[in-house]
Task: structure prediction
Amino acid sequence: MDLYELTISQAHEKLVNKEISAKQLAESVFERIDQVEDKVGAYITLTKEQALKQAEAVDKKIAGGEQIGMLAGIPGGIKDLLCTEGVQTTAGSKILEGFVPPYDATAVKKLKEAGFVLIGKQNEDQYGMGSSTENSAYKKTANPWDLQRVPGGSSGGGAAGLKAGECLFSIGTDTGGSIRQPSAFCGTTGLKVTYGRVSRSGVVAYASSLDTIGPIARNAYDAALILQVLAGADPHDSTTPPVAVPNYTADIDKSIKGLKIGLPKECFVEGLDKQIEKIIMQGVDILRKQGAEIREVSLPHVKYALAAYYIIVMSEASANLARYDGIKFGHQSKDGKDLLEQYKKSRAEGFGEEAKRRIMLGTYALSAGYYDAYYLQAQKVRTLVKQDFEKALEEVDIMITPVTPDVAFKFGANSDDPVQMYLEDVFTISINMAGVPALSLPAGFKDGLPVGMQIISKQFSEDLLLRVGHRFQQETDHHLKTPKL
Result:
């Protein structure tokens, strides 16, 4: 096994036993990047010089007999939506090209304090707006399993980069499925946390009431190690409640016997590929054989979630993206003759088509005369969806659904049909609406492409999700399979 293929726990063991150095581990990843990055396109910015210095600092600690944490010396990639001090942060958009933050996002700061090694900033759909990473202003990221197909989005660079061996883990964001969907398409393990479990401070805002930050990992155990570092309240983010952070690996091996699993009947309907459904049910059977109890549950309002979600997300996006005016920071047009024209031209030149679409639709939904008809109604639907999840999760411990209605699609397949692209998130967006956590796991393959299974639980019960995911992965090898590049 090459060093870049190691899990976090495997790499940590080799580091503390002095079988390898952190510098060797980082160099192995950069050598892999040299081999495959031209095919995959996972990164916008690479930080090799900084990474090797970080690795050498960890090696000095080990040589001096210091104990190191689980993420110390581990090479990771960060979605380009998170601010990184001294390293360009673009949010995948030309309007922020050249922006170098003077500080780290809280999540990045915590990772640095844990001693991780920053490999670079990973490609994404602009501002997290997309399900294919085709909306990046810089490049298209390819799915390592089939370079003619998308890796999913918006955290496509993170999932594809990890599966291609260009890092040992990634940090993504999930507003409506942007960690789970690319994890399903690329065959990685992706965790969407409870809203507020991880600080959003220093993360470029897309839809503030829905955005979450979480890990993309090789397995559930690695995801638990990463979340251990990321989770917790932050004085810089008032949406992080003072909820205690458990030890996410303490009970990860515990039996799931007697666990109640719900299958929402609204998620196993026409439109879901039959082979995908079969693979998900095979995954459910694996958990049943470990002693879990299976029953049907209902989420009656989830059918309205997609429409309500896109009204809310576009409205919040239009408000958040108003700050990019070509005056304070970011791209500034050279052709503006007066202030209003400066605004118009800077935004026209800097934003991509999808960002413009969402700004316009969101502004319309928030405008006088339409606010009550659209945005307010969408928020009422959101409350009903949240209540559905609360009721269902009183009856069962977790719920299982597909992550996506089908496997990764080819480049351009949905580019001319925004609504079809939005439907890619049909099984994921309701979880963000409800604010609960969900885990995407590789559950099998269809036509040589990965299929993801989604596990959902109550707020702040990520430890349960990770335990179920870990138990599932002890019985399966889907997460261990890698593409040939």
The chain is about 40% helix and 15% strand. The longest helix spans residues 372-395. The first strand starts at residue 43 and ends at 46. The chain has a mean pLDDT of 96.
